[in-house]
């Protein structure tokens, strides 16, 4: 007996090809944000005030420190604590080549990480502490308040960054910035681990790790001396003063690991696999801490950079760029070369990313996609309780806009059929009544949008594993394609591809209810996918058909989904 190959899903013809670069006439129109504001109580304060206030505080501190230093008690204090904690052990090995190299690589990687991170933030330019992203509960934003008089999707909320600031700048380009952020993170992590190992296998750890409580009075003394503009003696070749030690220690051993942990905890797969830990350290709190850690790095770089100049540029650049301890001009030109490399990278990266977007997507997937994909294997089981349900759930995506769909809404989806076919033994059409008659599963889960917002809702629907049992995919079926009734933002049908393993996870359902009520059109009626180990864009709304396939290279632009084709996302996005 020979079996006929199944005819391909007719909706395939509605998929569209996509550009391999960003063309501005096809891209989201720009939208300027506002200067960042911080909410204190009910008042929003423009962070631009930090400049005049900071300058005034600095001037006062200088005056204060200078008068303090005339007091005999303070004189005695500085005499006892000259700046370097007395029992700080001495480093004998100077500034070895590996330390210089790692310092440079760290700067180089941070440039990409910080700029691409800002670009990701600009896609949902608000921060919150609570679990949900209810408008008005944000504590930081660089966007106006959420308009109440119309549907305002998360995509509407995204703002433009200049190409010199974000990577690649523009608006809603986080698909590409994420590849930069995660790929360079991996390199930065490798550099960091190698740095930790080398620090502790040599005597270099002595620079950074305080071994005596004396470091605190020493740091205070150093701060007073710096602030009075009469600097302490520098022994940077062999050991650091209290203030240096504390700030370097915090940067290397606290801010860096905190950034990594709070970054990972924003992932649906990791947060859901972490159980109570993921529920306690919710995504929005993690995003906020991630940002504060970023702000620490910005402050550190500014202060550290300024100190390199004002405490002796020749000695300092000789130490870190030439590995010698004298007052010659040897290190300074090398420092300039390093800065020129950073500047060149800075100027090139955004234009390159815009004109080679597909290449950036492919390279990113090659470097980090496989690692991210590992998290897909975990079956997400983490659920919340009814009291965690968000009062507000951001709508997102491109709404259906066709007579076909309006007609379905008008008749309350009576003639709607979900078509399930492709590489299956028993292709089938389901009416909404058929689906409702099957065993229903309810779950209270967090939705993680790639743009950064999240929300908790209760979903009711039928498990995908039951559909698998009915239609029986053949062994050749490796992926499930979800076709929507709606087009995507750039024309052509919205669709998305999942590995078939995702279909048998406990919490993968086709939802027709949200928070105990029938699903609204805004959130995907008549049917939407819930697949809790992936980011939101992979959960197709207004599902029209499911096709099981062996490969997706011949669908659309071949990247595994609409946003994968048009916005350069990855098709496996559990992180
Ligand atoms: N058909 C279709 N499905 C879609 C989208 C879309 O644009 N079209 N957007 C996706 C994105 S990016 C997200 S975050 C969720 C948003 O679901 P919500 O509107 O219920 O919040 O739907 C996903 N499903
Ligand atoms: Mo999203």
TrEMBL record:
Keyword Transmembrane annotated: yes
Domain Cytochrome b561 bacterial/Ni-hydrogenase: 95-321
Topology in membrane: Multi-pass membrane protein
InterPro entries with a match to the protein in the record: Cyt_b561_bac/Ni-Hgenase, Di-haem_cyt_TM, OxRdtase_Mopterin-bd_dom, OxRdtase_Mopterin-bd_sf
Keyword Acyltransferase among UniProt keywords: no
Pfam families named among the record's database cross-references: Ni_hydr_CYTB (PF01292), Oxidored_molyb (PF00174)
Xref: Gene3D superfamilies: Oxidoreductase, molybdopterin-binding domain, Transmembrane di-heme cytochromes, Chain C
Chain ranges of the Oxidoreductase molybdopterin-binding domain: 413-550
Keywords: Cell membrane, Membrane, Transmembrane, Transmembrane helix
UniProt main location, coarse: membrane
Protein name: Molybdopterin-dependent oxidoreductase
Organism: Mesorhizobium huakuii
